[in-house]
Amino acid sequence: MTDAPLLKVRDISKFYGARIGCRNVSFDLWPGEVLAIVGESGSGKTTLLNCLATRLMPTSGTIEYRTRDGQMRDLARMGEAERRFLMRTDWGFVHQNPADGLRMTVSAGANVGERLMAVGGRHYGNIRETAGDWLRRVEIGIDRIDDQPRAFSGGMRQRLQIARNLVTAPRLVFMDEPTGGLDVSVQARLLDLVRGLVHDLGLSAIIVTHDLAVARLLSHRMMVMKDGQVIEQGLTDRVLDDPREAYTQLLVSSILQV
Amino acid sequence: MTTAASELATYNFAYLDEQTKRMIRRAILKAIAIPGYQVPFASREMPMPYGWGTGGVQVTAAILGPEDVLKVIDQGADDTTNAVSIRAFFQKVANVAVTTRTRAATIIQTRHRIPEEKLTTGQTLVYQVPIPEPLRFLEPRETETRKMHALEEYGLMHVKLYEDIARNGHIATTYAYPVKVEGRYVMDPSPTPKFDNPKMHMSEALQLFGAGREKRIYAVPPHTEVVSLDFEDHPFEVQSFDKPCGLCGAENVYLDEVVLDDRGGRMFVCSDTDHCEDRRAHGHCGTMLAYGKEAAR
Amino acid sequence: MATPLVVSEVAKSFTMHLRDGIRLPVVSSVNFSVKAGECVVLGGPSGIGKSSLLKMVYGNYGVDTGQILVEHEGQFVDLATADPRSVLAVRRVTLGYVSQFLRVVPRVAAVDVVAEPLVADGAIPAVAREKAETMLARLNLPRELWQLPPATFSGGEQQRVNIARGFITDHRILLLDEPTASLDAKNREIVVDMIAEKKRAGVALLGIFHDDDVRVRVADRVIDVSAFSPRKAAA
């Protein structure tokens, strides 16, 4: 771990007219750190994620990212070409609905290989080999490499989306409810996979979830959002085991025990 | 009053009004200035349906002068419906000289082929384009494809070629094979066979592309680099044919298959009819022609 | 003798917002320290706050006031105020914790659960696994269970996995929350031995033991937590 944050977020606000998307959010994300943003639907967590990932323009505030050359760069001042390049090389974005993050009509191999080709990969054999290697890592059989994700189950699609994002060895991955809409057993498998990959690759990740169990399993640190504001944040097990705010206590006490 | 000259008075020269021609010429100039870039233009209603070459016809109409000699081909042939009617259209509305001979033409409007004979300085090749956007089938959002062109994000184009190899073991795209123009824009060469792609590279002739329905014009100026996309381990290759042309014996030309009877008889002949006729006039003779002559005897 | 753990003037209360915001004081004016090679046991009746105190020392519960100083890589870190990243670094390198219950991660084999703290600190996975197997063997966990995820294990089996995981590292401070609660006599003996070894290695141990026999055998000192209880003080 180096001693500089990867992402510096200062006073990010997003207004939709008079309505608040998120308000005055500040934090640092360090290399190798996984941050969970929790809250119920409408709390502003997805708005915040989209602002961080430059998919939405914040109304105010700054987001700085440390690029591979070690410089802190203000994302809003980066040119679009550079920002998009960053997004498909150094970043990943895992959508809740895999269809939003995959090309459903091209094969699994090409889905994984696309980022490689986008950064200049021009050797079919090498691209295919790397794609096959990543399919193995996300536990998709190599015999499915030429199948389209349309023929995949929800869990497989989500794993494919993850492989597609990680193939360029990004340093920062955004995940929006990565296990939403999956069966519990499929969720467990995916969570374990993500946990392993995050650890093995030393990834930094920001995960939006309403599922506190997901936050507990994957994140080091969490932020609880309500009405667009961060009302509590800290070490994940501290927030979950000793919640301070009324809303956090309500969230934690609402978990169903099996 | 049935002469062409008298009918001409009914229309402006070459059908389009002068303001429209100016608008199209501006688009053409911009297209030439930015090789491979798709310039939007205000495509007009033409007296033919979309898909029949309205884009090519508008480009031709905008650049045609009274001194020009026009050749129109469809799939390489001068005598197919589309070619005949467009040729007749310009004879009627511009009273220009027409020819079937590649060498004699100053403007050649084409659908699906580039003539076999090398084009030279001063000639202009006008392509009829159905779908100008090479990224269309992979990324349906026009806003996104424009951004991809602007930022030179062309990885997706190779995704298409990757899919081809994954499915067929080789790049199976045989027409509308994507090219990169002057190291910058990826361009759809219109549905010409990839056999013709090398002819676009460093061509002496000006190449103009018109898409009527899609309202786009793009261009490859003379002496411009046009490179077909490929992979290092699956390089671009043109089709090759086992046999020479059955009529003129030409090799290394693009051949059409002609079914002769209902018993499996077939022959392969030049798709470029002018090229074939020219060769035969110079005494070249293919096996089928020789056989035909013998049978007739 | 070094004193790697110092708890000073710590107070803690819970505010129960869901019950009209009532404030439940847990402890106040907590002062104690643990020396290297010493095993300090938290004593007192159940419900007095022993477990809560242990969790505060681990950084799992926040505190209202006071300091929890842990000697970490040559300097003291105050876990009461440290940022999450520092707390995690302290836990990874210096501060271990054996809880009463194993928090099971789906699909992870018992041997990997045990090896994880070593791997997280950069050990070669194969080496860490080998050490984990030694620990599991010593605690008599049947070999056929090693490759299985502990979710379906019995309470005693899970507890042994938990102990192996807690004892596998060379952390200078180890917190033990009733590690022997669901163990049989034979395995309890082994844990007592393991604690003695940690003491000999200079590890500072802070624990809760309900079993009188075990407590007597491992404790160098017993701190009566009821002395910190505001309820007791008020009475």
TrEMBL record, chain A:
Pfam families: ABC_tran. InterPro entries: AAA+_ATPase (IPR003593), ABC_transporter-like_ATP-bd (IPR003439), ABC_transporter-like_CS (IPR017871), P-loop_NTPase (IPR027417), PhnK (IPR012700). CDD domains: ABC_NikE_OppD_transporters. PROSITE patterns: ABC_TRANSPORTER_1, ABC_TRANSPORTER_2. GO terms for molecular function: ATP binding; ATP hydrolysis activity. One of its GO terms (biological process) is organic phosphonate catabolic process. Residues 7-252 form the ABC transporter domain. Keywords: ATP-binding, Nucleotide-binding. NCBIfam families: CP_lyasePhnK. Belongs to the ABC transporter superfamily. This is Putative phosphonate transport system ATP-binding protein.
TrEMBL record, chain B:
Its EC number is 4.7.1.1. One of its GO terms (molecular function) is metal ion binding. Pfam families: PhnJ (PF06007). InterPro entries: PhnJ (IPR010306). It catalyses: alpha-D-ribose 1-methylphosphonate 5-phosphate + AH2 + S-adenosyl-L-methionine = alpha-D-ribose 1,2-cyclic phosphate 5-phosphate + methane + 5'-deoxyadenosine + L-methionine + A + H(+). Keywords: 4Fe-4S, Iron, Iron-sulfur, Lyase, Metal-binding, S-adenosyl-L-methionine. The keyword S-adenosyl-L-methionine applies. One of its GO terms (biological process) is organic phosphonate catabolic process. It is an enzyme of class 4 (lyase). Belongs to the PhnJ family. Catalyzes the breakage of the C-P bond in alpha-D-ribose 1-methylphosphonate 5-phosphate (PRPn) forming alpha-D-ribose. This is Alpha-D-ribose 1-methylphosphonate 5-phosphate C-P lyase. It comes from Rhizobium subbaraonis.
From TrEMBL, chain C:
It comes from the Bacteria. Residues 5-235 form the ABC transporter domain. One of its GO terms (molecular function) is ATP hydrolysis activity. Keywords: ATP-binding, Nucleotide-binding. PROSITE patterns: ABC_TRANSPORTER_1 (PS00211), ABC_TRANSPORTER_2 (PS50893). InterPro entries: AAA+_ATPase (IPR003593), ABC_transporter-like_ATP-bd (IPR003439), ABC_transporter-like_CS (IPR017871), CP_lyase_PhnL (IPR012701), P-loop_NTPase (IPR027417). Pfam families: ABC_tran. SUPFAM superfamilies: P-loop containing nucleoside triphosphate hydrolases. PANTHER family: ALPHA-D-RIBOSE 1-METHYLPHOSPHONATE 5-TRIPHOSPHATE SYNTHASE SUBUNIT PHNL (PTHR42798:SF7), LIPOPROTEIN-RELEASING SYSTEM ATP-BINDING PROTEIN LOLD (PTHR42798). Belongs to the ABC transporter superfamily. This is Alpha-D-ribose 1-methylphosphonate 5-triphosphate synthase subunit PhnL. It comes from Rhizobium subbaraonis.
